[in-house]
């Protein structure tokens, strides 16, 4: 018998009874907790009345909630590597796998960790930086067509350029260019 056998299984608050406010406490083995977590992840419990109570119980036992808490967001050094790689390659075809390789991470770990650390997805960051770069090109190279700006910034299509620019700056690139020209004329 080793030390693991001597440990008491975690105490888990169970579901409340419908006709009283009493909380039922029961023990849950690690194997059973793992099976219940897998059941929840599969989506089979989605929408069932006991799903929230089961999620809460597993979280109290060190299941789902503590697994999320253990996952570390990316370090400042890794974020800096990611940002430097994106900045150096804004005009190129960038894939998440390329960024992950530069940061020495798997694409999945990078994607989850980046969102957790910054609050936005890695791809949203790339599109936002490309839109900001496009704005600087429109300002510094007014003779370039918007299609040329989109290509120089690495957008896959003109439609992607328009959508990212609108989301980042609140207006489409053509309106931004006209507004900027009007402002320069008035000064």
Explain what the structure shows:
This protein has about 190 residues and is mainly alpha-helical. It has three domains: about 5-70, no CATH class; about 75-125, Arc Repressor Mutant, subunit A, CATH 1.10.10.60; about 125-185, Homeodomain-like (Arc Repressor Mutant, subunit A). It has eleven helices and two strands. The chain has helices at about 5, 30-40, 50-60, 65-70, 75-90, 95-105, 105-120, 120-140, 145-150, 160-170, 175-185; strands at about 10-15, 25. Strands 1-2 form a two-stranded antiparallel ribbon. A hairpin with a 6-residue loop joins strand 1 and strand 2 (about 25). Helix 2 (about 30-40) crosses helix 3, helix 5 (about 75-90) packs across helix 6 (about 95-105) and helix 8 (about 120-140) crosses helix 10 (about 160-170). The longest helix has 19 residues, at about 120-140. The radius of gyration is 25 Å and the shape is elongated. The N and C termini lie far apart (about 85 Å).
Helices, strands, pairings?
Elements: H1 3-6, E1 11-16, E2 23-27, H2 30-42, H3 51-60, H4 64-70, H5 76-88, H6 96-103, H7 107-118, H8 122-140, H9 146-152, H10 158-169, H11 173-186
Antiparallel strand pairs: 1-2
Helix pairs in contact: 2-3, 5-6, 6-7, 8-10
Secondary-structure content class: mainly alpha
What's the gyration radius in Å?
Answer: 25 Å
Give the CA-CA distance, first to last residue.
84 Å
Q: How many structural domains can be distinguished in the coordinates? A: 3
**Cα shape:** elongated
Strand percent estimate: 5-15%
Total helix count?
Answer: 11
Strand line-up of the largest beta sheet: 1-2
What is the oligomeric state here?
single chain
Q: How much helical structure, as a percent, in the residues?
A: 55-70%
Q: What is the number of strand segments?
A: 2
Largest sheet: 2 strands, antiparallel
Poorly predicted parts = 7-26, 65-70
Output mean pLDDT: 80
Q: Strand-and-helix sequence, N→C?
A: HEEHHHHHHHHHH
């Amino acid at each position: 018998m080793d030390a693991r056998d001597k440990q008491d299984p975690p105490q888990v608050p169970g579901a409340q009874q419908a006709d009283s406010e009493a909380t039922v406490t029961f023990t849950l083995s690690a194997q059973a907790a793992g099976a219940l977590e897998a059941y929840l992840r599969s989506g089979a419990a989605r929408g069932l009345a006991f799903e929230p109570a089961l999620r809460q119980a597993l979280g109290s036992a060190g299941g789902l909630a503590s697994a999320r808490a253990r996952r570390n967001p990316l370090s400042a050094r890794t974020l800096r590597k990611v940002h430097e790689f994106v900045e150096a390659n804004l005009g190129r075809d960038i894939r998440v796998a390329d960024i992950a390789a530069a940061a020495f991470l798997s694409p999945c770990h990078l994607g989850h960790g980046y969102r957790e650390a910054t609050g936005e997805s890695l791809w949203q960051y790339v599109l936002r930086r490309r839109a900001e770069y496009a704005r600087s090109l429109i300002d510094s190279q007014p003779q370039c067509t918007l299609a040329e700006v989109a290509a120089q910034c690495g957008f896959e299509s003109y439609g992607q350029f328009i959508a990212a620019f609108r989301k980042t700056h609140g207006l489409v690139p053509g309106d931004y260019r006209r507004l900027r020209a009007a402002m320069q004329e008035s000064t």
